[in-house]
Write a structure and sequence with these properties.
By secondary structure, the protein is mainly beta. The protein has one domain: Jelly Rolls (Sandwich). It is built from no helices and 13 strands. The strands form three sheets. Strands 3, 4, 6, 10, 12 and 13 form a six-stranded antiparallel beta sheet that branches. Strands 5, 7, 8, 9 and 11 form a five-stranded antiparallel beta sheet that branches. A hairpin with a 2-residue loop joins β7 and β8.
Length: about 160
Amino acid sequence: MATIISGSTGIDRVHNDAITHDHQPTGSVLQVKFATYNTNFQTTANAWVDTGLSVTLTPRSVNSQVLVAWNQHAYISTGSTWEGYKSRLLRDGTAVWTDPYSLSHAGHTMVHMTKDGDSYLDSPNTTGSVTYTVQVLPTYVATMSFNHGTATSQIQATEIGG
């Protein structure tokens, strides 16, 4: 059996008329995109802030689902209250999932460094390019830093055939 590898998509077929991405069984992983972001930024805003963490994927089928998983490095330097942050995932600028609870907390004049992760299973219903981005909402924050020092945050989008 011949294996044909071509182009930037990797293995296009295992054998003539055998398995192509169009004929994968439901639940098969069709593609994976991965990105990192390591630019440090600080905020004291009590508003949604872009983290710079994003990944773009072009689904191969309108029936596909996309599992997006990410982790975000945070450094919290508190004032006199309990502080933390929430996160949300945007698809092409529109929020598709928002965490109802704060991911990390630090309390009463304390410093807390953490790397929190989350995931969401999306159904974009398109074969057009989609971009997923992560935003954070600091809560009651004196100073919050993301990607502190040399820390790196990651995001991965995995297309699952439907």
